[in-house]
Every structure is written in C-alpha cells, then in structure tokens.
Amino acid sequence: MRHLPTKSFLVLTLVLVAAHTASASGRFQSSTLPTDAAAQVDLTVATFLAHSHAPGVAVSIVLDGKPAFARGYGEADTARHRPVTPDTLFRLASVSKPITATGAMQLWQAGKLDLDAPVQKYCPQFPVKPYPITTRELLGHLGGIRHYGDLPHGDPEDHNTKHFDDPIAGGFSFFANDALVNVPGEKFHYSTHGYTVVGCAIQGASDETYVSYITKNVLASAGMSHTVVDDATKTITERSAFYTVKDGRVVDASAMDSSYKIPGGGWLSSANDMAEYAVAMLSDKLVTRSTRDLMWTPQKPTNGSADRYGYGFGVGEVDGVKTVSHNGGQEGTATNLTIAPDKNAAVIVLINADGVDVNALAKEILHEVLQTDAHVVPAGQAH
C-alpha cells in the first residue's frame, strides 16, 4: 500500500471532517483493512463529499473474503442532522438486480426454473409476444422488453407516486402490453421492466411471492438482516432521506414510489448488508461455484455484438483485475457494488443523492483496496 501524500491544509481539513463524521460499525469492529488504506478511503470519500456536495455516503469493503471496513460519512437526513452509519438504508436502485438474479439462479440450480423455457411457463400473466422470451434472456437484458425512455410520448411510470401492494402486477400495468423493442436474444437492451418479469418467474417457480422468496432464500441466507423493500407507505427508521444534487445545490429528490419495480430497482439496503451479500457470493453461500461463474460470464447476443453483461452483473476490469459489478441510480440515490472475484474482495458505495458520480468513487476506492499489502486468499479457497 502506498503512503499517503503530503496534504495541503484543505485536504487535512477534509480528513478531519471525515474522521469526525465517519461512523464505525459494531458488526465490523475487527477490521482487517490496513490503517493507511483506511485513512486513504476516508480521504477519498471526504474529497468526494466536498466536491460533489452529496449529503451522505456509506462505504463497505470486503477483503480476503471477509467484511473488512464499513463507515458512514455525512448526513442521512440533513434536516434532522442524522448521521450516515453502515446500517443506514439507501435505495439500491438497480443494484437490486443482482439480488433478484441470485434468487432466479438458485431456482435454476435446484431444477425448479428452466432458464430456456418461455417465461409464461412460470409467469402466465405476462402476455405472449410474437417471439418467445426466456428467463435467461431477461436476466441478461436480451429479452427485448422496453426500458425507460423507449416510448415516443413519455413513460407512464415516470416519477410514479402510486403505491402497488403487488409489485409484479403493478409493474405489468405499465409495460406488459407494450411492443418488444427488438427480437429476444438479438441484442443487449437494458430493461428494469424485464426484471419484473424475472420476479414473476421466481414466483411461479417457487410457488411463493417474489418478496417472500428473496427475503428467505437470499437475504436471510446471506445474513442481510436490515434489507427490506422500499415501501413508501411505511416508516422505516433507518431509511435515509433522498436528495438530488443539481448545479452544486442539494435539494429534496422528486417523490417516487418504487413498488412497481421491486425486482429491478426497489430494495433498500445498507453498506453492512451489501458486504454480507458480497461475502456470500464469494464463498458460494447462495449459489454453487459453477452457477456463480455462469452468472459472471457475459451472455452472447445472436447478432454477434459484444456484450459485457451476464446474469445480474456486468463484467469488466479495474487495474487489470476482473470485476463483476452493478451500479444504480434513481430519485435520491446512487449506488455501486463491485466484486473482484480473483482477489476475494469487494467494494460497496451507497450515496443518498442522484446527480453524483458513484462509479468514479467506487473505482477509486477499489483501486486503493487492490493496492493493500494484506494477504490475498485465492477466491477458490474462500469457503
């Protein structure tokens, strides 16, 4: 790990602010992150807060296949001056998709969900289209389902404030009868709505509601005890307030009820819980190693175009190291989960504002993690 550079007065001030506002987690008190690496993360986040004007950030790091670092910075609620902690709940936005994909792949490896059968086998309420659509295609955004911005006269779900007790039926009311945007399997077309159809397939294959299945088989199995649906009708004590950064100003985010898109963008989680998810994926606690490797392998569109998306995860690299990741953004949030499988490491960054660059912050923190002097256990030995 490189030594911290000589700091100007401003940077020293930022570090002091970070040290004052950072909140250590009781669950992660035995940190394995080297002291200088932790200090560099504090500095990186403090600098980000000063430049981006984001109200609050939570960061967690997995090192050697174990939770190694979790801190909150800034405020979860600026009106009440409530600090961010590692247990503060943020909107995951599209980081909900890896969680949903994990549930689907559990059912596949158990022989309960045929990824290549027409999705109506498990979700008969989704209308039959001119071409068959499979769960495999939907998991890889190859299903031809529209996303936001695909309709010529605006999307009916834009800034939705209506609450749906049934997230699958609620989502279908917005898009199920729309035409496909391309032939399924042909090319990558990102679609949060496609993940609502995956959620429906999970219900049919498991014979229970999507939320119930995911809660019992993914969240509870991973030890994600704080993660819940973002229910706008309920008071959720640890939930952050939601903000937008625009032209350097912080304002309240637009109202939005995500109950129509829980599988693709409607869970709340914390830095602590998302670290537990990363650990569970690295240690084969949720799916087998072969299933995990399949999830982290890009699918192949039939038109021969390049694709960097597998099953709920994008595949890339940082500093020459393979990464699997997902980012998210919606009203009042910006999120990033990045796992480096070969290094048995992960970084989670959760921000309670949209309009900020969460991906750059996550990449910078992962860069610091990959430079640590800590002994790295080969991923295949982490069980």
Structure characterization notes:
The strands form three sheets. Strands 1, 2, 3, 4, 10, 11, 12 and 13 form an eight-stranded antiparallel sheet that branches. A three-stranded antiparallel sheet has the order 5-9-6. A three-stranded mixed sheet has the order 8-7-14, with no helix packed on it. Helix 3 runs parallel beside helix 6. It has eleven helices and 14 strands. The protein has about 375 residues and is of the alpha+beta class. About 30% of the residues lie in helices and about 20% in strands. It has helices at about 10-20, 35-50, 95-110, 135-140, 165-175, 190-205, 210-220, 260-265, 270-280, 290-295, 360-370, and strands at about 25, 55-65, 65-75, 80-85, 90, 230, 245, 250, 265-270, 315-320, 320-330, 335-340, 345-350, 355. Strand 3 and strand 4 (about 80-85) form a beta hairpin. It is globular and about 55 Å long.
